[in-house]
């Protein structure tokens, strides 16, 4: 394995203290809004209307728990000079005014309701009322005659915006550009999130043994992450034995058996910032097929990391990975997500997205301050096992810095016989 430096990014405790510089949340909020307004200034849009939960978190710094994740009930507005405005679920609007009084008041933290995805019939008049309220804010902000960018929206409300005469454009691409470069506070939060997963992998390594179910590992990971301060566990991929190839992307209640190869992906959020972090183990003993698959996956990973340099482009990373047919798939669409890279931030899949499917023809420049995950996958020659590795990387002027630190140089055998 090539030697790559681990990140010098601090990973302090998760509390705020007076004796050490940690995350500066005021600086974080100011940076994120400035990034969005910078993109608005370079576009012909007057405002962004946002429904996607990660975009709302990025622009408003509000959170009501993940029961409301992407239900398109909450929405936010940022204009060229004003905002953020948040329309939230009932009493949450009042809560924001109490929790963040330096940012929110009755003007910019409001209760909103579009009809709960059709559960309240459109004949209620709620969509029309919401559009008229939005038009009033756009007028007050001086951008009423300009196009408005929308990220995602229910078809009914999208059509209502158009019926009101608004020139609706794509706003998601602009938000992805705003979110692609992280400041020091975002990088610290991402590093802290990875530090939690480092600890979970130690627990998984100690717990892996015959008779444990894939779902038991999922439960263990959830419990440990919440104990360490995670605000949300989005998914735990827990895959073992014959379920490894092809990757099913979902755990089951399968019992882990002696000699299984097993891999895991831990996706959680700390203060809004996510992880995507795979590791592979053998249980009890490792076959030569297991070791060969891991070695191949590691080699593809190391080759990709070598390409992570400021000024390089994502096609240079994608080209070091095998073509789909070389590891058992019909084409790049069929193999998408296996030899893969993606930005990580308040969203799980941010810019840049790196794969042979899209990067060869539409490369993205690698910039200082990007944070992305690289994933490799190698099926084993036994026809049932596979190795899966993932590293999260901070792009610095001095090269790539890895923030996923649980050992991954060689295949680890848990509870070896």
List keywords for this structure.
Creatine Amidinohydrolase, globular, 21% strand, Creatine Amidinohydrolase, Chain A, domain 1
Question: What does the model show?
Answer:
With 417 residues, this protein is of the alpha+beta class. It has two domains: 46-170, Creatine Amidinohydrolase, Chain A, domain 1, CATH 3.40.350; 184-414, Creatine Amidinohydrolase, CATH 3.90.230.10. The chain is 31% helix and 21% strand. It has ten helices and 16 strands. It has a six-stranded mixed β-sheet with strand order 4-3-2-1-5-6, with helices on both faces. A hairpin with a 2-residue loop joins strand 8 (261-270) and strand 9 (273-274). Helix 7 (184-207) packs across helix 8 (214-228). The radius of gyration is 23 Å and the shape is globular. The model has no long low-confidence stretch (mean pLDDT 96).
Short description:
The protein is of the alpha+beta class.
Instruction: Round the Cα radius of gyration to an integer and report it.
Output: 23 Å
CATH architecture of the largest domain: Alpha-Beta Complex
**SS class:** alpha+beta
Residue stretches low in confidence (pLDDT < 50, at least 5 long) are none
The share of residues in extended strands comes to 15-25%
CATH superfamily of the largest domain: Creatinase/methionine aminopeptidase superfamily
Element-by-element helix/strand order: HEHEEHEHEHEHHHEEEEHHEEEEEE
Whole-number count of domains: 2
How is the biggest beta sheet arranged? Answer: 6 strands, mixed
Q: Helicity level, as a percent range?
A: 25-40%
**Cα distance spanning the termini:** 26 Å
Q: So what's the CATH class of the largest domain?
A: Alpha Beta
Strand order of the largest sheet: 4-3-2-1-5-6
The overall pLDDT average reads: 96
Q: Tell me, what's the shape? A: globular
Total strand segments: 16
